[in-house]
Amino acid sequence: MNNLISIVIPVYNEEDNISVLLERLTHVLNQEKIEYEIILVDDGSKDKTFKIIREAAEKDAGIFGLRFRRNYGQTIAIKAGVEHANGDICITLDGDLQHKPEDIPKFLNKINEGYDLVCSYRSERNDPFLRKFPSKIANLIAKKFSNLELKDFGSTYRAYCTKVAKEMLIYGEMHRFIPVFANMFTDRITEIPITLQPRIHGQSKYGLGRTFRVMSDLFIVLFFSRFFNRPMHIFGYISLALGLPGLTILTWLAIGKILGLITIMNYGPIFILGIILCIVAGQTMSTGVICEYLIRIYYNDKRKPY
Ligand code: UDP
Ligand code: MG
Q1: What is the largest CA-CA distance in the chain?
Q2: For residue 15, how many other CB atoms are within 10 A of its CB?
Q3: Given CA atoms 83, 86, 87, 93 in this order, what sign does their dihedral have?
Q4: What is the atom index within ligand 1 of the atom nearest the CA of 73?
Q5: Could you tell me which residues come within 8 angstroms of residue 138 by beta carbon, excluding any fewer than 6 positions away?
Q6: Whose CA is nearest to atom 18 of ligand 1?
Q7: Which has fewest Cβ within 10 Å: 18, 89, 142, 238?
Q8: If you measure from the C-alpha of residue 287 to the centroid of ligand 1, how many angstroms do you get, rounded to a whole number?
Q9: Buried b or exposed e, range 26-44, using 16+ CB within 10 angstroms
Q10: DSSP per residue over 182-233, as a string?
């Protein structure tokens, strides 16, 4: 285990926040004598964000910048930053000063207790009701289905064991559900309270439209977290649920026909329904088999997160 701590910060049009953030961040890190690398991921900013990152990187050998050619979104930015992390522990936080860099030692203390993922919950959240309400619902659903005892799945201020962080697949708005993904690889997950600071400079990059995207991502994440390792279970169930009625119909028609009780011609629609159900069941089953092969290839190929 190395002592380096990688700090990953996605930034999109945060020119007014970065300098203050870096100043406070490096102050805390130096004060605590933490060996650090700060990876700022510029997610296609149109303002002076990258210029400020470049200047900071020239002055401090522990500061690095990645720059996207266009705006890919916070999730991809976090993922890119984590992929470049060299420390065994990494921390992600927002670049808009809503997350206090002074909280970093609290996260590291928990990591030192042996946790692989330390999440945060916003004990005082100064967001408007229309932001808080959907996030409450998403948290309730995520908690119910994932069996993870977390209060807040969506807070992006987190500390990770880098191996686990690199392993997680995140797309769409899924940085919000990282704990659910992480739970596929570890159950050493905990959370600590933070106070979310109000945003002073710049604007939030999200509107209400995000609620729908978050909800659909939530569905995919829960699906993945339950069936990722055993796709045949879900495809097998669906296949049985379709195939059994299909087979029953066809058997019933066949027996009737053999005994000379019915003419198939008179049962056209139900005959076709039976055939369609059987064909779809067969297709679903073979999709399941293909997924089983894929998951085996996936695990053969992978660095193991343990
Ligand atoms: N961000 C990003 N790409 C985006 C949107 C946001 O890198 O497309 C960054 C943003 O600069 C900030 C963090 O992600 O550092 C959180 O974004 P924001 O503060 O807008 O989200 P909110 O706090 O409103 O949830
Ligand atoms: Mg913010």
Answers
A1: 91
A2: 18
A3: negative
A4: 8
A5: 153, 154, 176, 214, 215, 218
A6: 204
A7: 238
A8: 37
A9: bebbeeeebebbbbbbbbb
A10: HTTT---EEEEEEEPPPP-SS--S--TTHHHHHHHHHHHHHHHHHHTT-HHH
CA of 124 to the centre of ligand 1 (A): 19
Residue pair 78/170 in contact by the 8 Å Cβ criterion? yes
The number of CA neighbours under 13 Å toward the Cβ of 300 is 6
Decide: 12 in ligand 1 pocket, CB within 6 A: yes
Burial 127-165 (b: 16+ CB within 10 A, else e): eeeebeebbeebbeebbebbebebebbbbbbbbbbbbbb
pLDDT tens track of the chain, all 306 residues?
Answer: 788 999 999 999 999 999 999 999 999 999 999 999 999 999 999 999 999 999 999 999 999 999 999 999 998 999 999 999 999 999 999 999 999 999 999 999 999 999 999 999 988 766 777 777 878 888 888 888 888 889 998 899 999 999 888 887 666 677 778 888 888 888 999 999 999 888 888 888 777 777 778 888 888 877 877 888 888 999 999 999 999 999 999 999 999 999 988 888 889 899 999 999 999 999 999 999 999 998 888 777 665 544
pLDDT of residue 188: 94
Alpha-carbon distance of 197 to 101, in angstroms, equals: 11
Choose one of 47, 71, 93, 94 to mutate for the ligand 1 pocket test, by most ligand atoms within 8 angstroms of C-beta: 94
pTM: 0.83
What pLDDT is recorded for position 175?
A: 77
State the Cα–Cα distance between residues 175 and 169, nearest whole angstrom: 9
Which pair of tokens denotes residue 41? 């991921």
Locate the ligand 1 atom nearest the alpha carbon of residue 42 and give its number. Answer: 7
User: How far apart (Å, rounded) are the C-alpha atoms in residues 153 and 155?
Assistant: 6
Q: What is the phi/psi pair of residue 40, to 5°?
A: -95, 125
